Task: inverse folding
């Protein structure tokens, strides 16, 4: 098996290729991150202010590093009038909840905690895990829907996401948000009614085309990822800034914590590693090598310490929390990737195809 000489990715990563020096396609085609420009970000903020809405922007807050940093930027640096919100995905760590609490108290911003029907949420996770080995897709869909709903309810002109360049390419294809695929998976076990599924989805007919159309026409708020506009501090510096400014706390004994907000994250990495041969951390450490934040040796050490090939230390606790059995996990581990590719929305597939064509034509 070929492994890249520069990053940690190997042949199992989808559509990867290697050159004669065994450098992977993600590394050799890597263009150094170039921020879009702060002036453009300032323009977006100014037009948001000009709308004179109750709040200039909505910040979805998970208590993790990136979203807390965005709250700091929005309130302390850009002086925006912020509404913060959190969708309770039922998997929050105490550390994340405490981080949210402190950040809200210190900034004094209004914060909304969206609580779903937890019984239905649990059944959704169970179905997702039993039939696909993934739960992140369901959490992503529900989080996004709740964010859009709050933004709509409060007419906030923009939504500020904490997505950072370091997260690029760390998804797995199965967890791309797709409502048709989601509905198909839910239909496999008849434990939820159509209405329950639609209520969980909030916007049950939303596809990528409609999302894009609604954003263009102003029916949905504009989504902005500020970390793509400006030069960012390193991952470590970012942590230091929010520790000082918003009382943020990191996982103890971890040099680079990732996704400390979710108690199921280590389980999802374990499953993804088994099913796909790669998972979120391998991709993130590879991004950190490419952005010169850490050396390859350092990345290997960090990755080995994460032990994604072993059951995580909170394995039993998480299974109990989700009311899943060892047998469910064994079943999930037997699945092949892209099991429900045929059940994804035709409109989404067409939309992605067209967007890719346009992007390639512009290169
Ligand atoms: Zn590489």
Result:
């Amino acid at each position: 098996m070929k492994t890249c000489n520069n990053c940690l990715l190997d042949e199992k990563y989808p559509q990867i290729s290697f050159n004669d020096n065994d450098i992977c396609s993600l590394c050799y085609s890597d263009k150094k991150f170039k921020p879009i420009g702060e002036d453009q970000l300032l323009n977006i903020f100014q037009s948001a202010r000009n709308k004179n809405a109750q709040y200039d922007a909505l910040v979805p807050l998970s208590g993790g590093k990136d979203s807390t940093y965005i709250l700091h930027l929005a309130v302390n640096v850009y002086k925006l009038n912020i509404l913060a919100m959190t969708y309770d995905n039922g998997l929050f760590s105490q550390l994340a909840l405490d981080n949210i609490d402190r950040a809200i108290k210190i900034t004094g911003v209004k914060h909304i905690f969206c609580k779903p029907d937890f019984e239905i949420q649990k059944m959704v996770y169970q179905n997702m895990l039993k039939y696909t080995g993934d739960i992140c897709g369901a959490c992503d869909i529900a989080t996004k829907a709740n964010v859009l709903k709050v933004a709509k309810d409060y007419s906030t002109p923009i939504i500020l996401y904490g997505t950072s360049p370091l997260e690029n390419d760390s998804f797995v294809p199965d967890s791309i948000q797709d409502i048709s695929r989601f509905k198909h998976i839910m239909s496999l076990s008849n434990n939820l009614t159509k209405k329950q599924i639609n209520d969980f989805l909030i916007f049950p007919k939303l596809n990528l085309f409609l999302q894009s159309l609604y954003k263009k026409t102003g029916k949905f708020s504009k989504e902005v990822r500020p970390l793509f506009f400006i030069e960012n501090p390193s991952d470590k510096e970012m942590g230091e800034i929010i520790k000082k400014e918003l009382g943020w706390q990191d996982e103890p004994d971890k040099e680079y914590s990732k996704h400390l907000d979710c108690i199921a994250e280590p389980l999802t990495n374990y499953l993804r590693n088994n099913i796909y041969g790669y998972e979120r951390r391998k991709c993130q450490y590879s991004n950190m090598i490419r952005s010169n934040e850490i050396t390859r040796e350092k990345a290997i050490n960090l990755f080995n310490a994460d032990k994604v090939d072993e059951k995580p230390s909170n394995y039993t606790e998480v299974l109990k929390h989700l009311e899943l059995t060892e047998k469910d996990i064994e079943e999930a581990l037997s699945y092949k990737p892209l099991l429900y590719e045929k059940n994804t929305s035709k409109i989404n597939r067409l939309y992605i195809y067209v967007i890719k064509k346009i992007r390639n034509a512009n290169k």
About this structure: Strands lie at 57-60, 82-87, 110-114, 158-160, 222-224. Residues 136-153 form the longest helix (18 residues). The first strand starts at residue 57 and ends at 60.
